[in-house]
Amino acid sequence: MKRQTILVLALVFTVVAAMAQDKKWSAQKANDWYAKQGWISGCNYQPNSAINQLEMFQQETFDKAAIDRELKWASELGFTTMRVFLHHILWTTDKEGFKSRLNEYLAISSKHGIKTMFVFFDDCWNDTYAPGKQPDPKPGVHNSGWVRDPGTMIYTHPDTLVVLEKYVKDILTTFAKDNRVLLWDLYNEPGNNQQHEKSLPLLKSVFAWAREVNPSQPLSAGVWNWGPKFKELNEFQLQNSDVITYHQYGYIEKHAALIDDLKKHGRPLICTEYMARRNGSLFQVIMPMLKEKNVGAINWGFISGKTNTIFAWDTPIPSGAEPELWFHDILRKDGTPYSPSEIQVIKAVNGKGKKK
């Protein structure tokens, strides 16, 4: 893309983002909100039948039966929140149908006592996408069909910005006072896939659009990478989030140190991604620590299925054979646990069957 276009886009995004701080929640308001929620625990959720965000919410593949069945299992484990990814193509191709299906999803989740954390944009995995039939999973490949939103096409088609603004504002306005929605996660892992600071203009804009709507739920965008190329992104995310969210897949010592650092901001904390068995981020050690420190715990993920997240990020198994050590996920698609001992830990930490 021409340098002049980049500069013009950056200027437009910056001007729009000037409003972002005006309606930010005070630390007191955020902490009061958090105190009313009870301890937050749950998973990043895709039904086993969906390879990505599109397959989860398109009319042809919106699997209400699977969602109902799987969220019932989540409730039985004591989970209270699911983090769910959206995509703007779902809105541009079927605006009213998409919103109707979001409402149906929320009705199912609410029936099982589970609130939802919706995610708008995402810099992870595949850069191209299209509505309609989604690809079959690649055997043994982690998240082979997951798609970014909006991806790098925003640089070549800057008019996409107008569409994205209308999309974000419409979804937020529709559910702005819906108590089934816990929090709006505006941008997942901005800067991933070597985008770095190129993601900052859209990050600033989505906060500004959300502040203009001013929903009753808090806003956030989680910090996830502490490298020097993410410094400006991290500063903006921490300065503009009502509730601080973050990702951490490392050992307990590293995770605990990060919590201590983030608590200096004086705001509630929710870990929106953790639990990678190979990395030593385990329910047995991380989940109790998060509860002790009063940090929300949303692991990746819940049900083994077409996302293939039982396989590690960087270790494909071309045969598709089940790995002895699952990377993510808790249950098989029939509801049986990968590890019964993990289930015992999860239920115990969630206080399932005990007075809280």
TrEMBL record:
> What GO MF terms are annotated?
hydrolase activity, hydrolyzing O-glycosyl compounds
- Pfam families, per database record: Cellulase
Signal peptide per UniProt: 1-20
- Print the keywords alphabetically: Glycosidase, Hydrolase, Signal
Q: Where is the Glycoside hydrolase family domain?
A: 142-300
GO process terms (BP): polysaccharide catabolic process
Q: Which family does it belong to?
A: Belongs to the glycosyl hydrolase 5 (cellulase A) family.
Please identify the protein, giving its name as recorded.
Cellulase family glycosylhydrolase
Native source species: Dawidia soli
